[in-house]
Amino acid sequence: EKGGYEHFMLKEMYEQPKAITDTFSPRLKDGKIVIEELGMSDEDILAIKKIMIVACGSAYHTGMTSKYVFEGLARIPVEVDLASEFRYRDPIIEEGTLLIVVSQSGETADTLAALREAKAKGARVLGIVNVVGSSIAREADNVMYTWAGPEIAVATTKAYSAQLIALYLLAMKFAHVRGKLDDENLASMIEELKEIPTQVEMLLNNKNKIQKFANRYLAARDIFFIGRGVDYAISLEGSLKLKEISYIHSEAYAAGELKHGTISLIEEGTLVAAVLTQEDLYKKMISNMVEVKTRGAFVMAVTNVDNTEVERAADYVVYIPKTNKYFTNSLAIIPLQLFGYYVSVGKGCDVDKPRNLAKSVTVE
Ligand code: F6R
């Protein structure tokens, strides 16, 4: 059933191009984004004053990424919350709030409770869900499915990638309806979106190089991930992937926060993975990388293919192909998933079923 792959996680990583394509294709019609299941007219979309995104774990990270996309593209303010926090803090939900819950399983107890809390307070709730007919899918006002297919490995990969795509589509749709994205720019973003599956495949085919690199870190005690903007969101996801399956302590930091504490943890040889895909932030990131390198860190960078400056501050570089600046997480996550996977494999961990974790968290 693993189709020749050693683990479900590897198989599911390789299913990402398909999960991505299956999530965007049914929603692209004649050069426009059509999301019928949204159940929202253009007037409804114009009336949105605020978006709240609520989820757990990796799904929460896709919410964080999309905050930058919704705000940057559609200029709609976004709040992102962990479901376990949201549900207990008597959240303020004003008129014009669209609440989005994101969940692979559709059964996560805290996310479901957050949905119920928001509905009781009068919010319109949109679910972005992978499992058809799950509790969250049934209880949300509207459901936009991610078409990633069944995910078996506890560590999510393809569902995460499909969630990102669903959120990009929504942000692009909202931006277009609200007059922030013209026809021409929408069309060119759609073209860039369609390139993602092939680009993901290219990055997956780099796996042997990443495995060789990962094997150097099997005995690491701590590994850090840093980024800014969408790259901060992906740092959180890269760090979670690594720690949950390899049991190596790892933290992700907004790069600008290093100086406020974390930098004291950097020692000779500590691995710091820096993600820098936002051109306007290259300089800031490079100076953060130099700061940790000066203190002995070994710096791995994940950056765009045209970033020629990076080698000055990095010891090891993975380049990702050119895409829209809002889509880079979909590419940059691939080497980070592979890295976590191969550290786990190298250490002989139970990759698909890490200790103490369950695929679906139906109790809080
Ligand atoms: C991490 C992971 C978890 C889930 C989280 C939410 O790899 O899989 O962090 O993302 O438990 O689960 P769902 O999406 O089913 O609500």
Furnish the topology, listing elements before pairings:
Layout (H helix, E strand, L loop, with lengths): L7 H7 L1 H9 L3 E2 L2 E2 L8 H5 L3 E6 L1 H18 L3 E5 H4 L10 E7 L5 H12 L3 E6 L5 H5 L2 E4 L12 H20 L5 H22 L2 H8 L7 E6 L2 H17 L2 E6 L16 E6 L5 H13 L3 E7 L11 E5 L7 H20 L17
Parallel strand pairs: 3-4, 3-5, 5-6, 6-7, 8-9, 8-10, 10-11, 11-12
Antiparallel strand pairs: 1-2
Bound molecules: fructose -6-phosphate.
The site of fructose -6-phosphate has 15 residues, from helix 4 and helix 11.
Would you mind describing this structure in some detail?
- With 364 residues, this protein is an alpha/beta fold.
- The protein is built from 13 helices and 12 strands.
- Helix 6 links the parallel strand 5 and strand 6 (124-129).
- The longest helix is centred in the middle third of the chain and has 22 residues, at 183-204.
- The site of fructose -6-phosphate (F6R) has 15 residues, from helix 4 and helix 11.
Put the structure in a nutshell.
Residues 41-180, 213-354 form the SIS domain. This protein is α/β, with parallel strands linked by helices and 364 residues long.
